[in-house]
Amino acid sequence: MKRIGLNWLWAALLALVAGCSEPSSGSGPSRWGAWSDPRTWPSGQVPRANEVVNIPPDLGVVLDVSPPPLRGLNIYGVLRFDRKDLELSADWIMVHGRLEVGTPQEPFRQRAVITLTGNNPEEDQMGMGTKVLGVMGGVLELHGEPRRGWTKLAQSTPRGAREIAVLEASGWRVGDRIVLASTDYDPRQAEVRTIVAISGNTLTLDRPLDFPHFGEVTFGVDQRGEVGLLSRNVVVQGDEASAGSGFGGHIMAMMGSVMRISGVELRRMGQRNRLARYPVHWHLVGEARGQYIKHSSIHESFNRCITIHATSGLEVVGNVAYDAVGHCYFLEDGAETQNLLEGNLGILTRRPEASQGEQPVIPTDKNPATFWITHPANIVRNNVAAGSDGVGFWYALPENPTGPSATTTIWPRRTPLGEFSGNVAHSSWDGLMVDRGPNRDTLEPETTVYNPRTYPADTQNQYNDAVNPPVVAEFKNFTAYKHRGNAIWLRGLNHKVVGARLADNAIGVTFASRATTLEDSLIVGDSANKGFPRNWEFRGADGRSLPRPWASGAGPIQDNFPIRGFEFYDGKVGFRNVEFVNFQPLEIHNAQGAYRTVREAGALSYLRFTSFDIDSRNFAQGARFTNAKAVYLPPRPEPTPEELSKGQSADGYRGGVFIDLDGSVSGRRGHAVVLNHPFLLDTSCEVRPEWNAGVCGHGYARLHIRSESGENIGPVSLTREDGGRPVFRMWGAPNNPRFFGATVIKGRAYTLEASGGLPRRLRLRLEDSEPGDFIHLALPYSGEPYIYRDYWIDNSNRLAQAASRAEFEASSGDRYWSEGGWLYLKLRVKNEVGRDWAVLDVCSSDLCR
């Protein structure tokens, strides 16, 4: 992400001089010898402790003994581990030729341990620092025993148990260290144990478990906790001093290098707070097809897990990562494409802890993702993000690549999705986040619209469907449970989530999007997985943990936080064929039972108290409910002065409406479900108090009111001229007090008044409508108005005053009426194919022109 100077370039050039291509079949050193044989070495002496050892290009050395600790090791020829238990220790190792511990065809089956010991942070070996196993144009082959990397629990395991049953334990052994993932909201309920006995698929552990671990498929959602294998027979590690300093070892391959790793354990790796110092790191390698890290384990990492930087075509398959600081599986700049991430497991991805001297390497590490993906054109399949302080899967797409990859020829935010399928996230704040990509200059997260297009580089037509057709990004078969935030949050256009299985999340799905749907999915509010609340937490009366269990100061639980399944927002968005299970109010209390209240629940709701605009055509279709309150829209009183000072007007939320297309929600086909607010209801609506909503047969649209000449005119009031004249008072959108929006009933008459007075130029826009839809609008006005229809299309299209009030009423919106200090307008959508809007500009002079 950040630039690290030109050391990498200088190092790469040196590597090319040394010969960077992988040896072809039959090539190799002209002579071979054993490490322990003095005749092998040009000096005639076996290397001694604390030396810098050089293996020249024409020499192949078989490591047949464990040498004394070395100062450094330069491999220009070949170093091959003999087939015996061996240890190699050095401050640093540089591979210009070939380092081989086993091969893909013949994995190493003895025990090999490479320990990196360099503890001088100022030392710099060819741009890669120290404590490094660096591949500078050479070939690194590390291949341990092929063993199953992870499995799942076969049944739930209680706290205090010393035996666990797993689905498959073949190949695991007594003495292996394993990690059990948390199956609750708290990712720190993950725990490591050692196997002391095995009987079939039952493992006996060295000590009792501190937490229960869930192991069932409940209400159709697979919540069987993962169990990962940490032990491997080939180990690359930082020395013991790494644990105290956070200055661990790292493996780094530069351009022109080849690195293949399988069946390897990496521990005490990564260097705290240091850019480009990660356990395994392909750095600006470019095309890397045939290279990989597979079926390996990474644990106790001080800085990430696996980093892919400006490298494409890698395979990252079947790995286990546990206890890492910062983004774990990390695609760095946004230029990384065609990589395969499949079948990997990540457990406990931690944010930097300032109290321990940890700082974010990049700003987004403060909200770390187990999988941090900066370009959509990669394959992300069947992975598990099992516990993070931040996000499970984060598509953090920059506008253009950052850091050394910076270019304006690559557009991640408009590139079609490669593949996202079969992935699982649990025990984090958010499960799948598609938003908040890094700003190109600061790398701070910013609002990100993912808008995949046929021609991503066509910046002029990024919203022109005819010229640059959209490409639907389909997120398939995602499972997510136990998130304190969202299971899924998407922002953008033309997304589709299919086959999702979600449970026990604060919020199931929120689409801050347009043209986006959830289809053929299942959302469960409260499952059989009750979790394990801490003593200080509020909990359900049935003992279950809550997504938001904390108190607000010394008071009761914070806001009771009603859980929701599908949360409407923005739009047009909706769902088809979705089942909702177990969304019911729940009695909650503190650990002593002294305080009791009710946590509300609703299968369907709106993004709570948003001030931003929403689409009145948002829809539901094919809903099915089992033991679930279909709708709950939390009541929202008028905002307080403090909320207004923070831009929290909730104007959007107070206009919440969605259409029940087939009646599967309300029993009324084609009816609207609207917030229980007088401005949206009339006597024909059926109010359902338990939903805090009404069911109405009206058509609804959105009215936008904007001060185009810059005056702050708010707050603004809109009065419906029927049914007791209910009023909707608007304070404006956050950071834009000159823009206001309201949901209105089509065909009705309204009066608009602005407390700050009307601006010199006012734009009124009716949208989310059909050709022929209209509203009448009256506003106080003096002087001669200059009114234009579709001004930006035809700036000569000024409206004339009607000859009479009757002519105005009968017009198609091309006339206005003025009398008694009031101006009367008709916003009517033209009868044109594709039209869903009508716009009038009202000017106090000929300012519009």
From TrEMBL:
Tell me, in one coarse class, where this protein mainly resides.
membrane
Q: What's one GO-annotated cellular component?
A: plasma membrane
Q: Tell me which stretches of the chain form a coiled coil.
A: none
Q: Where in the cell is it found?
A: Cell membrane
InterPro entries annotated for this entry? CEMIP_beta-hel_dom, Fibrocystin, G8_domain, Pectin_lyas_fold, Pectin_lyase_fold/virulence
Q: Which residues form the signal peptide?
A: 1-26
Residues in domain G8?
39-155
Q: Which domain of life is it from?
A: Bacteria
- Extract the ranges annotated as region (Disordered): 435-465
Keywords on this record?
Answer: Cell membrane, Glycoprotein, Membrane, Signal
- One Pfam entry for this protein is CEMIP_beta-hel
What's this protein's name?
Answer: G8 domain protein
